[in-house]
Amino acid sequence: MSAFIKGVSAVSRVTGMAAAAMILVATLVVCHMVFVRYVLNQSTIWQTELAAYLLIAAVFVGSPYVLMTRGHVYVDLLPLWSKPRTRMVLAVVSFVVSFLFCVLIAWKSWIFWHEAWVKDWTTDTVWGPRLWAVYLSMPVGLTLLSLQLIAEMLAVLTGREPPFGIEDHESLKIGLAEEDVVGK
């Protein structure tokens, strides 16, 4: 189990680097587009489309890394106020729901990608890239995100990580402290 968690984490780190590279390339493509359009006064054909596809791919491919590093935005008020046992139940329920959602969307994305591959879809633009290459980031990213969710859940269930990354001493007490009530 430890090897699975470490392996998935290693793959997630690679996806994070790939996403960062895609964002860098998209930035360079936009800079090229601005130069060609406004300095050379020429039209652009492929730059806008490629930059958009790279940014979308970065979101899907980089999502396992974001989950692994807890870089996503989530509301932790309820887990902070909960007792450790309740926090564990909330963590398991949220992992299961997230996993089922990601698996469903990954499965549908694989079907969509396969259709684009078999029917050799292209965009309707002058550049006309093959859409299977564009769509591939969706099923790959969501499949890897599903694996990262399993690794995160296993880490919580085996005690390697606390639920929601919250140690017991970080929990908040609901209500006012006794000295606040007595002192007023």
TrEMBL record:
Subcellular location(s) per record: Cell inner membrane
Predominant cellular place of this UniProt entry's protein: membrane
InterPro entries: DctQ (IPR055348), TRAP_DctQ (IPR007387)
Single GO cellular component term: plasma membrane
Domain of life: Bacteria
Entry annotated with the keyword DNA damage: no
Membrane topology annotation: Multi-pass membrane protein
GO molecular function per UniProt: transmembrane transporter activity
Keywords carried by this UniProt record: Cell inner membrane, Cell membrane, Membrane, Transmembrane, Transmembrane helix, Transport
Membrane spanning stretches: 14-38, 50-68, 89-112, 132-151
Domain Tripartite ATP-independent periplasmic transporters DctQ component: 27-157
Keyword S-adenosyl-L-methionine carried by entry: no
GO biological process: C4-dicarboxylate transport
UniProt function note: Part of the tripartite ATP-independent periplasmic (TRAP) transport system.
Family the entry assigns: Belongs to the TRAP transporter small permease family.
Subunit structure: The complex comprises the extracytoplasmic solute receptor protein and the two transmembrane proteins.
UniProt name for this protein: TRAP transporter small permease protein
Source species: Caenispirillum salinarum AK4
Lineage: Bacteria, Pseudomonadati, Pseudomonadota, Alphaproteobacteria, Rhodospirillales
